[in-house]
Amino acid sequence: MSHAQEPSSVPEDDLAPTQTAGYKVGQQKTIDELAQLDAEDESLARWKASLGIGAGAGAGAGPSSSSGSGPNVEILGLSLTAPTRAQPIQLDLTDSDKVKDLKKSPIVIKEGAEYNVELKFKVNHGLVSGLKYIQAVRRLGATVDKLESMIGSYGPSPEPVVKKFVTEEAPTGMLARSGTYAVRSRVIDDDGKVYVDFEWAFKLAKEW
């Protein structure tokens, strides 16, 4: 998904992933190559099967899955769920025109409410390693919150994956309710490949 033409209200530095000391990104391998590694290791075989790799991985795990069309990872939507709200707030990320308008139409979050961000995505082909979600929130030109969470590694599957992140609590008070919060969200993998990078916004209110 391409960046918007106008300057971002959330700078690039806010989206920089944390680097793990001593960690090095491994050489990219195909699904067929991974399926042949340590074939006698039962625990590794179960892990690979969970990613859709190798024998016993189920439909869609064969060689044809690694050469399909479309992006490796298709980001379908972002949702906010809360115990105090009957229905989630859903952001559709499949329409690029709608995505561009997200930051112009702030969603409403109840002050002091606990909520979770959920990401819905699908791996169409290949193996993606070390997917990570990064979210930065800015208000009045300053970063007020950053969420960085590991999503994991996945092989191709026709079924979407829904990843729920840690519970967050919205600020409270009259000052917090004034103005708009700018949010920039990004999904990135171990190799630094960005699968989605978009902006949205929210306002705080006394009720949803």
TrEMBL record:
Coiled coil: none annotated. Its main location: cytoplasm. It is found in: Cytoplasm. GO terms for cellular component: cytosol; membrane. One of its GO terms (molecular function) is Rho GDP-dissociation inhibitor activity. InterPro entries: Ig_E-set (IPR014756), Rho_GDI (IPR000406), RhoGDI_dom_sf (IPR024792). Keywords: Cytoplasm. GO terms for biological process: Rho protein signal transduction. It comes from the Eukaryota. SUPFAM superfamilies: E set domains. Residues 1-27 are annotated as: Disordered. Regulates the GDP/GTP exchange reaction of the Rho proteins by inhibiting the dissociation of GDP from them, and the subsequent binding of GTP to them. Belongs to the Rho GDI family. This is Rho GDP-dissociation inhibitor.
